[in-house]
Write a structure and sequence with these properties.
CATH class of the largest domain: Alpha Beta
CATH architecture of the largest domain: 2-Layer Sandwich
Number of strands: 5
Number of domains: 2
Organism: Photobacterium iliopiscarium
Protein name: Transcriptional regulator
Shape: elongated
Pfam family, one: PAS_6
Strand order of the largest sheet: 2-1-5-4-3
CATH topology of the largest domain: Beta-Lactamase
Length: 215
């Protein structure tokens, strides 16, 4: 470890949202923390779900974290540890480096293997029903931008076509509106692809977009 610079801390602070993002993705049974490797005070600078190990910001780096740092792998293999109260944890440590390739921090994930199964599943599921109920377009895992646009257009077209609350005369405009809200029309050639996929003229697409953007 060495004394960190201001630019090193800028990198670590930029990682703080990642801690919250991983914790939000995997739920309350996953502890995520960011260790600062400043030689003056190596400690936790950000933690989510600290109730799993009872730690908070300012707690010192663990002996296992130091072992993983010295193993020479930037992403460790998963390993098993125990929390102070005896909980079994599946853990993983990632080394964060600056542009000089010096280790400046560790991103650590600890999953509580002793959490009740139903509670684990519940922590992963709470928002899925919400998205499905409101008909949000399914995420498209496309191999290129054209495929992504075609898939998004088809998904939205099917949603709007099957929605009997939307009058037939309004369906094309509603499709364009939803595609606009998804950011599809920020992509190159999207208007042409949408016009072909929806079987309407590109001039109609542009007219709808002008009306939408004017509101």
């Amino acid at each position: 470890m060495h004394e960190l610079t201001e630019s090193d801390y800028d990198i670590l602070h930029a990682m703080e949202n990642i801690v919250d993002g991983i914790a939000a993705m995997w739920g309350e049974h996953t502890e995520v923390l960011l260790h600062c490797l400043d030689s003056r005070h190596p400690s936790i600078m950000k933690i989510a779900n600290g109730h799993i190990t009872g730690r908070e910001v300012g707690a010192p780096i663990t002996n296992i974290a130091l072992v993983k740092l010295n193993e020479g792998k930037d992403v460790s293999d998963a390993y098993i540890t125990k929390a102070p109260d005896g909980k079994m944890l599946r853990s993983l440590t990632t080394v964060i480096r600056n542009k000089q390739q010096q280790a400046i921090g560790l991103l650590c994930v600890n999953f509580n293997l002793d959490a009740p199964f139903q509670s684990m599943i519940h922590s992963l599921m709470p928002t899925i029903g919400t998205y499905c109920d409101h008909g949000v377009t399914a995420e498209t895992f496309a191999r290129n931008s054209d495929e992504m646009m075609h898939s998004s257009i088809e998904n939205v077209r099917e949603q709007v076509t099957s929605d009997s609350s939307i009058p037939p005369s309004k369906k094309s405009r509603e499709i364009v509106t939803r595609l606009h809200d998804l950011g599809i029309f920020d992509l190159k050639d999207s208007a042409q692809i949408a016009a072909k996929g929806l079987d309407i003229s590109i001039h109609t697409i542009y007219r709808y977009l002008r009306e939408i953007r004017a509101n």
